[in-house]
Amino acid sequence: MSTEAPAPGLTTSEAPILSAEDVTKEFGGLVAVNRVSVDIPIGSIVSIIGPNGAGKTTFFNMLTGLYKSSGGRIVFSGRDITHDRPDVITKLGVARTFQNIRLFGAMTALENVIVGRHCRMRAGLFGSIVGAPWVRNEERAVRERAAEALSYVGLRPGQFGQLSSNLSYGDQRRVEIARALASDPKLLLLDEPTAGMNPQESAALTEFMRKLRNDLELTILLIEHDMKVIMGVSERITVLDHGEKIAEGAPAEVRENQRVIEAYLGKQG
Amino acid sequence: MNELQAQLKEWRAAIERWLPSWWPRALAVGLIALGVILPQLFSVTSNFINTEILALTYVMFALGLNIVVGFAGLLDLGYVAFFALGSYAFGWLGSGWFFKAHVHVLTHGAPSTLPGIHLNFVLILICAGLFTAFAGAVIGVPTLRLRGDYIAIVTLAFGEIIRVFALQGPSLKIFGMPLTGGELGISGTDAPYLPGIGMFSELNIRPWYYTIFVLVLIALFVNVRVRDSRLGRAWVALREDEVAAVSMGIPLVRTKLFAYALGAAFGGIAGAFLAAYTTLIDAGEFQFGFSIFVLSMVILGGLGSIWGVVLGALLLANINYYLIPDVFNSLPGDLGLNFNLTDLQVSIFGFLLVIVMVLRPQGLIPERRRKIEFTRGIGETELDEPAVDQAWASVEPGEAVK
Lengths: 269, 402
Hints:
By secondary structure, chain A is an alpha/beta fold. Chain A is built from 10 helices and 10 strands.
């Protein structure tokens, strides 16, 4: 089975697509993320796990520029993005989804995905007002692409024109992934993608993540709570606890790690 | 109440079935035709047409404010600033105000011999638009980090700052010349001249009417095009969820400043036109009440709804400048009461607004998306249990979409 083949990125000596060095975030006196370093090899699927409040989402928010880190350095594809704005980082090729789905509720599924394409479009104020031919062509092409992306994540064409807030929870997750994919990312960040899903759906999503990586040559970084998903899909796992990295490695190693077991189950004896 | 609503809904559906699909277009063409013919039905100095000129100017103001408040969702309470700046742009570039200067560009007739800066009317409108667009962006900068009510407070303060500047203008000197006329105003503005039409005057107000009519058509066109563009979608996205929008690659600063600048430009052009029409730029006019008046038009018509805003502006301007002072003013006297209707102008106005907001809070012609935002959370069911449906991985990439 193809999924048993050695994971791309792990065996090569290529530079990581994203590397965080000693990244720190302080909110007032609280250190939410404390000197965390993570390297994400190109083409891999990497998970960040940890108990609630471990600083996983904060770490994500720093990677995408929503939070300014208080210290450390983040390098994406050889470029220092520590101080870049979120939209600049997206344009460089980092896309994300959110833990609590953040679709534009008053827009249709298709419009949501078109917005995701924003940073790859060129139409300006003047071109749009005049209705220049290339603006119209671009608009048409983006519409077609967005529809393709929605089919790719498994929406029926009949749902494209529905308001995203009227879609089922699972479909909203799909639209959010399609929206993230619309920006042609090299690195996809998924924040608890299986939250609220039943086991069958989680399993399907796990399969889908592999397919995504293989089809689109993506690198995927995900935050996850569902151990089954994590152990099934990740090639590397980083464990955070109280804002600090306590373990890192292949799933099998992490599972045996004493500190990880302590963090999740509490110290014994 | 519910039965009545159901009945209305039924009737509406019946009417929509009966109308051909192109009725909105036909209606638009019909309304434009009506707009073109209207002044021909009245005398060249008709008071009604005079009101319509004001009403159309307000339509333009409202269309501008609608971009900021309706499209981008930035509550601007200082829109009067752009009325003021546009008016002053006209005063500075189209009168003898800066008497030491001798600048004439494409002018015609008397103004081309007088001292001061005299530009062609069309040029002044363009300059006023550019100037206020710039000012709009500058005023927008401090609001970028703010949300909702706080934006309202900052813009309100800017409106007041501009007003105080205008009032104190006589003591602000540029090369020994005062900046504004304060409460005395800048008077003696140039009458616009357009080739083919000639010099505008108050003896024949039809050219004024057609000028603002064309300006409104341009504003409408721009509004429609921008609403359906990449930028328009970015505004909606920012309005809906700022964090998600910037994470999708929408540059926050640029997108918001575009809204401020474009909205301000329309305000500036309308302000310059109004200054030309009234031939006086009086600092006393730039009151906070103006911002509220225009905002009422936008909200009454339907936030973000272009056609709603046009309707709201036409209605409120006509009530304010025609129905109350001219048509029904003597009504209380006729009924044996000892007051004029104009004394109650503001109360009537407030009363009407309250009625509309109670009966139709989403506005007269609500915009589709705004309507959804408005009713969100009302009668909404809990999120559906995630259904086990087709597997994520079962769809082939790039499967044809028809």
